[in-house]
Amino acid sequence: MFLSGHVSLLNSTRSTEFQCSFLINVIILRTTNTAANII
Predict the structure, then answer these.
(1) What pTM value is reported for the model?
(2) Average pLDDT of the residues of the chain
(3) HEC profile for the chain?
(4) pLDDT at residue 15 tops 90
(5) 7 to 2, 20, 21, 39: CA distances (angstroms)
(6) Number of neighbouring beta carbons within 10 Å of residue 24
(7) Which of 2, 17, 23, 33 has fewest C-beta within 10 Å?
């Protein structure tokens, strides 16, 4: 019981980290694209 709860907590933390890194990558891509367009 405790072990499965711990694993699900780990999985949710991992997915949150993945979403954050994905968002950061998208933001970086958009800023570089905008900068390239300005130049």
Answers:
(1) 0.57
(2) 83
(3) CHHHHHHHHHHHHHHHHHHHHHHHHHHHHHHHHHHHHHC
(4) no
(5) 9, 20, 21, 48
(6) 10
(7) 2
Sign of dihedral through CA atoms 26, 23, 17, 11? Answer: negative
State the amino acid at position 30 in one-letter form.
R
Place of tokens 């998208």: 26
d(CA 13, CA 22): 14
* Token pair belonging to 4: 């499965």
Measured in whole angstroms, the distance separating CA 13 from the mean position of its chain's CA atoms is 11
* Residue 5, both tokens: 């709860």
- What's the one-letter identity of residue 23? L
